[in-house]
Amino acid sequence: MRRAEKCFRSRPRLRSARCAQQATSRKAASTGCFSAIPPGWSSQGAGQRWLSAIFGPNTWWSSSPSRVVFSRRQSVPFPATAVRSLAISKHPWFIVLSLVAILAVVSPVQAGTIQPGLQARLLSLPPEQEIAVIVTLTDQEDFHRFRGLGKEVRRAKIGRALRARAEKSQRPLHEFLRKQKALRLTPFWIFNGMAVTLRADQVGELAARPEVMSVRLDKTLALPEPDLALAAAPEWNLSAIRAPVLWSRGHTGSGVVVAGMDTGVDALHPDIGPRWRGGANSWYDPNGEHPTPSDLNGHGTRTMGIMVGGDAGGTAIGVAPGAQWIAVKVFNDANKATESAIHLGFQWLLDPDGNPGTDDLPDVVNISWGLVDEVNVCDTVYQADIQALKAAEVAVVVAAGNSGSAPATSLSPANYPESYSVGSVADTLLVAEDSSRGPSACDGSIFPSIVAPGVNVRTTDLTGGGTVPYSYAFVSGTSFAAPHVAGAMALLLGMAPQLSVAELEDLLRLTARDLGDPGPDHTYGYGLLDVGAAYRRLSPFPWQLFVQPIAGQNMRE
User: Fold this and answer.
1) Is 443 a residue of the active site?
2) Among 299, 343, 484, 522, the one annotated catalytic
3) I need a surface site. Which of 145, 201, 447, 506 has the fewest CB within 10 A?
4) How many CB atoms are located within 10 Å of the residue 211 CB?
5) Would you call 479 a catalytic residue per the annotation?
């Protein structure tokens, strides 16, 4: 988790139909203004297409005198500062002053329909150039209405409701895009949106449609080279979190399913292969490269080994060796992941077999990647996906990031309120120097949630196509701290399957071993994962009596 393509912050999604209706007329068109027509757009007609692509169809080019005209109407989601025309002189200094004046009066509420990264890209493209974008619609699901339902019923109802909403509200937009001859259209239902490839001069008209909340680039994340550590005494990490306490009492995560969202998994490793759930609902490659579990990078294999690895090599390496795993390979063989592939991965996790009537969802999802070029930024690009999983009672554990040691270095998606973020400590129980610190850039809350071993951790490695079956590596980073928490959740769910995700998260916070200054802080969070202490809190009495919410605790800077 050290490099990624830059992603731009998106607007918080509206949570009610009324808010969505109120915001339709406020959606922004111009977060920047431009004093020159891009290369290849020199004619008046091309200039008009350029303005429409950037500012929307209610913006036009007038040639006498040369000026850009902005029109504001309540029915069109591209408001300017008022109904006005801006005369642009041939003098460069006047052009600059005019543009600065426009920027000064456009409010933040108006900005954001076409995201800044997309606006910048459109400036550099000829009108006929194809561009891949992600479209988010205004009509989004409100998960509060599913509260109080049982886990299986809730999962089924959420899956059906999301599909129905997307199918109904996307139909007009699909027809529009077909008429526009869009080259690619991939609908999403985990959030109401789609991935589209279309011409650059069609983006403005797309964004201007009343059902569209925002349009952003379908950007690509790059996975860093693996951070292999020096050899150390093996399995210190499992003792540090006291996982053997549960093993000795027969709790290994049996009956629980964990999911990896990474570079894939080398199922030929004897510590991992036998624990694959198996079947078409247990592996997904949105890039279409591998029909069965595979991993050419190793990152996903290493994280999975920490979650569920066995002891085929002579010593135990995984936190929950009795759990089963499924995986989605969001990173392709070139170690790249598009935003659309990641959305498809989240969507698959919410319904692996495509039938909302069957409960084949994972219980815990591990995410060991993030938007590492956006330190201390809340980029909500994947927040709706994670909200949907959490609403379906799927725990989402996310590596905090390796952007420390300074404060305020949180990354998305770890800094979402819905994510359970995990920092990294060494065998000395001191925080790793590069482990990201809080507070969360999204809501100012404690970040990370807790910490876990993430320095010199022994885990499974690639087998070279099975030629080196007993292959292991020592790794470092929050990418490898997070799977400890995912595995610990599997252990506890195997013991107490009635636990809700909220109760499970609070239990781990309440029983974490306090490190650093007393109380929760923005370096260690609530402390070191201690699954043994969590077990003791649950085991003597019914779980309902001992899991208490911890909301409202004061945050310490």
Assistant:
1) no
2) 299
3) 145
4) 18
5) yes
